[in-house]
Every structure is written in structure tokens, then in C-alpha cells.
Amino acid sequence: MSPGYSATSTDDPFDPARYVMAESVGYLISRAKNTLAHSIEQEVSELDITHAQASCLIMLSSGRASTVTDLGRELNTDMGSITRLLSRMEKRGLIERTRRDDDRRVLDVTLTPAGHALAAQLPTVFCKVMAHHFRGFSAEEIETLRSMLRRVICNNSG
């Protein structure tokens, strides 16, 4: 049976006539994401940060993001929410924001030493959560899932 659809003779896995929300690939991906996010939220609360703050720290420390705009895009969050999040992180001494001299519209975001120290702890936390939720999965199954998710993401960009 195709995920998200009841069995019929048609081969179209996205036939609206066969749609079953609770088995929909989109619904299941969303539920899995929410489950992982909740577990990460619980784990990082011991470090006195939120999941969103942890994600920002990881993005900055890995070089995946370096500006407020980068963070908004990578975290799929509106600029107002990112600004409020970064304000809280700046007050805690985890990040610094600076305007570029050549383009005052661009705000660079950098980790402070305290931010780097906290970011260094996060891979262990994230991996602990992933190991728990993916127990029983083989390395091959996890790589297949990664590959499939990359394809879904790539299909959105073209």
C-alpha cells in the first residue's frame, strides 16, 4: 500500500480519491519532525536554551548561516521571530550582531565565547535524541532516508 493512500488498482500514489490523512507522507514527516523537535526541546532545556536557540547556535557554529537573513531562511522563520530570538540570545551573551560597513542593511551574527562553548555541547544532545528515535534502524536505512529527504528538498528548488 502506498503511504497516505488506500490500496486500489491505480498506480498513482498521490491520487486524491485515495487520500488518507493519517497515512499521508506529508503528515507523517510533520509528525516525525514535531516528535524530534519536542525531544530536542526537552534535552536542551537542561542547558537553559530553547530548541530554536540551539538550532541558531548550530547554524552559526557550522558556518551554515552568518547573517540574520541566513538564519531566517535556514530555520524557515520570519524575520520578526528571528530578530526576537536573537535579541534574547544577545542579552544572554551567546551572540553578537553587527551591521556591515559596506551594506548597513545586512546584520552579521557571530558567536561569543559563551556561544561557542554552548554550541560545542549540542552535537552530543542532537545525536542522543536521534539515536533514541532511530533505534532499530540500520545505517543503510538512515542513509536511504537522508537521500530521500534531500530529493524532496531538491524537488522544491527547481
Q: List how many beta strands DSSP finds.
A: 2
Q: Uncertain runs with pLDDT below 50, 5 residues or more?
A: none
**Average pLDDT over all residues:** 91
The major beta sheet can be summarized as: 2 strands, antiparallel
**Number of domain modules:** 1
Beta percentage is: 5-15%
Provide the spatial order of strands within the biggest beta sheet: 1-2
Order of helices and strands: HHHHEEHH
CATH superfamily: Winged helix-like DNA-binding domain superfamily/Winged helix DNA-binding domain
Question: Radius of gyration from the CA trace?
Answer: 19 Å
CATH class label: Mainly Alpha
Number of helices: 6
Keywords: DNA-binding, Transcription, Transcription regulation
Domain HTH marR-type: 22-154
Protein name: Multiple antibiotic resistance protein MarR
Pfam families: MarR (PF01047)
Gist of the model:
The protein is mainly alpha-helical.
Task: Please explain how this structure is put together.
- Keywords: DNA-binding, Transcription, Transcription regulation.
- This is Multiple antibiotic resistance protein MarR.
- Residues 22-154 form the HTH marR-type domain.
- It contains 6 helices and 2 strands.
- The chain has 158 residues and is mainly alpha-helical.
- It has one domain (16-156): Winged helix-like DNA-binding domain superfamily/Winged helix DNA-binding domain (Arc Repressor Mutant, subunit A, Orthogonal Bundle).
- The chain has a two-stranded antiparallel sheet.
- Strand 1 (95-99) and strand 2 (107-111) form a beta hairpin.
- The longest helix is centred in the N-terminal third of the chain and has 21 residues, at 25-45.
